[in-house]
Amino acid sequence: MHDAYEPVPILEKLPLQIDCLAAWEDWLLVGTKPGHLLLYRIKKDAGTNRFEVTLEKSNKNFSKKIQQLYVVSQYKILVSLLENNIHVHDLLTFQQITVVSKAKGATLFACDLQLTSSGEERLRMCVAVKKKLQMYYWKDREFHELQGDFGAPDIPKSMAWCENSICVGFKRDYYLIRMDGRGSIKELFPTGKQLEPLVAPLADGKVAVGQDDLTVVLNEEGTCTQKCALNWTDIPIAMEHQPPYIIAVLPRYVEIRTFEPRLLVQSVELQRPRFITSAGPNIVYVASNHFVWRLVPVSIASQIRQLLQDKQFELALQLAKMKDDSDGDKKQQIHHIQNLYAFNLFCQKRFDDSMQVFAKLGTDPTHVIGLYPDLLPSDYRKQLQYPNPLPTLSGAELEKAHLALIDYLTQKRSHLVKQLNDSDPSTTSPLMEGTPTIKSRKKLLQIIDTTLLKCYLHTNVALVSPLLRLENNHCHIEESDELIILYEKKGLHQKGRVDNNQSPEQIHTVWTKYVDMLNSGFKPLLEKKHLNSMCPHTLSILMTYRSNRSAGVTLSHWCEL
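Predicted structure:
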């Protein structure tokens, strides 16, 4: 857990009971049970979390309690549910513009701003009148019927737009109504044991739907889009989406979580909170019957520091991407966090996931190879730095890690071979700042090919021959001698890659003579008699390999087999 928000009191001990909230920009609207509508201007002091709160207008002309408020700042109107009807007022003067006469008896409404193909915003409204749903759109300062009424199975208790659908919560079940001209209705699932269903719109056009202390996310088809439901510590009363956070009002406090990764971020104790509303990104108000608080976001930089300490790299990455694009360090910080994330995946032994992230980053392949034991020469390996101690790998776990590395190196090798003749130096980046990188593409290919040989010997020796036969392989001649020793040590002559006419005893004798010769220090390639006694298959591999390579610096300089 970390601190994402700080609660700051805005209104305290308000004498009138609060029944609903709405906000936009620097303005806060408070609807009260006696029917008073209060308009406050909220100005934040620069550099502090203090606010100057001014009551700009108090309208006592609403004769009964204000049941629901919705601000449409784009049209400068206030839509409200008063005396079971839909009223529209001017946003600043509170002068009444229109009343939707057909909506008499309304108990609930939901508005949605839809972006049309021409780029204009279109206001749509769904109104619950007893067991019917009425659809409207806003034009020329009044609401017009969008289409015919829908018959509902019960009286709606909660609803929200979901793209071209409306998710409706009734007393016992949730339904999805498609705005496809036919009004097709899809039954979703029961509401659970909670007294009131809860449907909340999300910033991406989906809806969050509550079932007791669980919340699932649905798209306009009614399909759940998250692998797992959010599990709250109590039953939410209301919810507000402030990406990457989802904020829920619970009976005793406000709880802040994330959908992906699924985390409990923060619990904020407040005195009997009931309502929550937003004036846009980073402006959130929570209210009880007589108090209003503002949830002020902790700076992104501070949150990222906390998250990196807690190794919550996925959430830190989401926040880093939300930083102002003018921040010159943004790109570098994102790259740094991605490297830390990939490293952490490796430490969690999620090798495939780790290699996939590294593959996208352009991290120096030698720094990735250095995560594994005994693949780099000790002198070079000592120059590499990592954020934390590396995990100890052995047995099946090490083999799984090697297989992931093979996929990564094969991809990097293909990319490097295509750029081999480019005059510009390689542009790999370090896993940790200040760690040296390899600029020469040829040296990188030497290291990659040698590492692939070692990995194949650990995992799948059948791939050794195809690698050695490549015309552009970058394993040097001297390495073939050491490779043969490894072949002998691994007993590869028993694995079927020999001439079928030779017995295992004959092959073993040939290899033993050759290994003895190498161990005695005799290193011209092979005497003719040894070549003649080799099986055709093995001889073919060695001769093809040697004919394709010219003399050069041995890879032993980089990788000790």
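Summary: DSSP finds 13 helices and 28 strands in the chain.
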